[in-house]
Design brief:
Layout lengths: L1 E8 L7 H9 L8 E7 L2 E7 L12 E3 L2 E9 L2 H10 L9 H12 L9 E9 L4 E6 L8 E4 L3 E5 L2 H5 L10 H10 L12 E3 L4 E6 L4 E6 L13 H19 L6 E4 L4 H13 L5 E5 L10 H11 L2 E5 L3 H15 L8 H12 L4 E3 L4 H5 L3 H17 L11 H4 L10 H7 L8 H9 L16 H15 L7 H26 L4 E3 L5 H8 L3 H4 L7 H7 L5 H4 L11 H4 L4 H9 L2 H6 L4 H10 L6 H17 L1
Helix pairs in contact: 2-3, 6-7, 6-18, 6-20, 7-8, 9-26, 10-17, 23-25
């Protein structure tokens, strides 16, 4: 895991080392072990390295026969790829996965990217062809941002590195802010900064240095071409095989490896499989709050650790930790694009960094396998609609009213969601109804100046959502929901994972986000993987033989809740007021201050409105006001 920056001067002038280095220094924590740079006229790369594979000869930038690369991430199948390339006549000077990328490019050209299994973001300069290849992994596990104007093309692992260049001015993108208020992330390639974009997951760019033309190509995206020729037993067998294989590959490391363990199903699966293959006693890391049992699932984590003989390390973040750390976390995030789980995730990562250099986690399981209660809520309405009108929008009843009944107890803790969902417009088209489920702006609009966020803006946001949700290959409601969450919501969650670990110079790996697993699951008939509206049905069938019964039968889902509403009545109240009721915030004119004052006094349990405002105002103060 590393940090990288790149400068391409379109006017042909030589890149200044001092400027390149200054940009890289803004993200020094991503790679504290080594650093290096390459400047060839108008093309300059800088690399900050966190050494994980081939500690001695894997330094970057790496060069070979007119090629130069800076690379962030890990290629998990690099051993298999290297052996294949050797059989084709390639020779290697190092044991690193970085060199494998260079040799693959020599053999296959830019299309080699589709052969990679891993998490990656890289810049590859081909001096002979006078072109640069810029790529980002299938799911967007590793970040890559860019800025372009008439004179420059700039790249960086984090936005703050781009802001160090004098050509880049930090300004807010108001449409992106409206996306943030709705989803708590920004759709498509935009960011909250005007003019700064992110390369989307599964994309690579080809930059022609003769014409300075930039072409973007898609090498992978989730496909939903349904396989009706195989049985459920076949899919279970293949999924089990892939789970074992991806864990084996992602344990490859020349430094110690540990695992996050929350006590939920996904992290439990990763921990149990990893501990069975890891030489020695696997270290696991979990966190909780002492404000009550609704903020603590360590009993489940201990149950899993006991089952596999793993070592458990726990942390209990405090209210004072939150007050002290939130401004720093906003700085590390670059954008306010996540829920309050960001804070405890950072604390657990900080704990893990004291014991290991690589940590495995269960991120992505909910998006790949369908683990959100909102899917059940959506299908409860569909089942009612089908029963009342004796029809279905999907061509077949994936979930009937009769089949969904056994899984309705999962919704006990989601009564507020159900109430909001059915307040109005029941039985509307699927895209409108799912937008209602993921729209987090409800109850928040009154907190903002009416000119900033009115009904027309909300419809514009919905139109952007529709273009993603109504993917032509997603015929079923279930696949439409999964697709949106995989391509829009998941990258935002992965941004959190990247930032909280990199801020602690820790590498995070997410074994469930193997594109082979995704390709298998998206090919399954929806009625098979969401049988009776049971969340993660096919995953549960696959792992039932080795996951403890106590974990398998859990009906509540915590998702690392933070006692923000409790703290708002204690010493944190002064902190919240200092941020949201400050003179600068009032002068900005974005918020409805009287309503914000009420919110600080009466934020709902597990509400996100206060969190959203805090993050947005601190973002303005940190990056825009400076």
């Amino acid at each position: 895991m590393c940090g990288l920056v790149g400068i391409i001067n379109r006017d042909g002038s030589k890149v200044e080392l001092s400027l390149l280095k200054a940009m890289a220094e803004k993200i020094y924590y991503r790679g504290p072990d080594e650093e290096g740079h390459s400047i060839e006229g108008p093309v300059g790369f800088y690399h900050k390295r966190l050494s994980i594979i081939d500690l001695v000869t894997g330094r970057q930038p790496m060069k070979s026969n007119g090629l130069t690369i800076v690379f962030n991430g890990e290629i998990y199948n690099y051993i298999e790829l290297r052996e294949s390339l050797k059989s084709q006549g390639h020779s290697f000077k190092t044991q690193s996965d970085t060199e494998v990328i260079l040799e693959l490019y020599k053999e296959y050209g830019p299309e080699f990217v589709s052969r990679l299994n891993g998490m990656f973001a890289f810049l590859l300069y081909d001096k002979k062809q006078k072109r640069i290849i810029v790529a980002r992994d299938h799911f967007g596990i590793k970040p890559l941002y860019y800025y372009q104007d008439e004179k420059h093309l700039l790249f960086g692992s984090e936005i703050k590195a781009l802001l160090e260049h004098p050509a880049v001015v930090a300004g807010p993108d108001l449409d992106s802010i409206r996306d943030y208020l709705t989803f708590q992330f920004v759709l498509n390639s935009r960011t909250l900064f005007k003019g700064i974009h992110k390369l989307l997951p599964g994309q690579y760019q080809l930059i022609d240095l003769n014409t300075m033309e930039v072409r973007t190509h898609k090498f992978w995206e989730p496909r939903f071409s349904v396989d009706i020729n195989h049985t459920e037993e076949y899919f279970v067998y293949e999924l089990r095989r892939l789970l074992h294989d991806t864990i084996t590959m992602q344990l490859r490391s020349d430094v110690p490896v540990g695992a996050y363990l929350s006590g939920g199903m996904d992290s439990s699966i990763v921990t149990l499989l990893a501990s069975s293959k890891y030489p020695g006693r696997l270290k696991t890391f979990t966190g909780a709050f002492r404000e009550g049992p609704q903020f603590n699932e360590t009993a489940y984590a201990r149950e899993v650790a006991s089952t596999c003989g793993a070592e458990v390390f726990e942390t209990y973040p405090t209210e004072q930790d939150f007050i002290d750390l939130l401004p720093r976390l906003v700085y590390h995030m670059d954008e306010p694009v996540a829920g309050p789980g960001l804070f405890p995730q950072y604390m657990v990562s900080r704990l893990a960094s004291k014991h290991v250099k690589v940590v495995l986690g269960g991120q992505g399981g909910d998006e790949i396998f369908g683990g959100y209660a909102r899917y059940v809520v959506a299908y409860l309405e569909q089942a009612l609609k089908g029963a009342i009108f004796e029809t279905t929008e999907e061509g077949e009843h994936i979930v009937s009213l009769k089949s969904i009944l056994p899984n309705l107890p999962y919704l006990k803790q989601y009564i507020p969601m159900l109430s909001r969902f059915w307040e109005r417009d029941a039985f509307e088209p699927m895209d409108r109804r799912y937008f209602t489920l993921v729209d987090r702006s409800g109850g928040s609009l009154g907190l903002f100046n009416r000119d900033f966020y009115d009904e027309s803006h909300h419809e514009e946001t919905f139109a952007r959502f529709q273009k993603i949700f109504n993917h032509p290959e997603t015929m079923s409601y279930f696949n439409k929901m999964i697709h949106f969450d995989m391509v829009a919501s998941l990258p935002a969650l992965l941004q959190v994972e990247d930032r909280v670990t990199m801020a602690n110079s820790l590498e995070s790996r997410v074994p469930l986000l193997d594109h082979r697993i995704s390709d298998l699951v998206t090919s399954m008939p929806p009625a098979m993987k969401f049988k009776g509206a049971e969340m993660k049905y096919i995953l549960k069938r696959t792992v039932k033989d080795f996951v403890p019964k106590k974990i398998m039968e859990r009906k509540e889902k915590m998702g690392f809740p933070v006692p923000l509403h409790i703290w708002a009545r204690n010493q944190a109240k002064g902190f919240f007021s200092d941020v949201l009721l400050s003179k600068k915030c009032r002068e900005r004119g974005l918020f409805n201050i009287p309503e914000v004052e009420k919110l600080i006094e009466k934020e709902n349990a597990f509400g996100r409105r206060l969190w959203g405002l805090l993050n947005l105002e601190l973002w303005f103060q940190t990056f825009i006001d400076k």
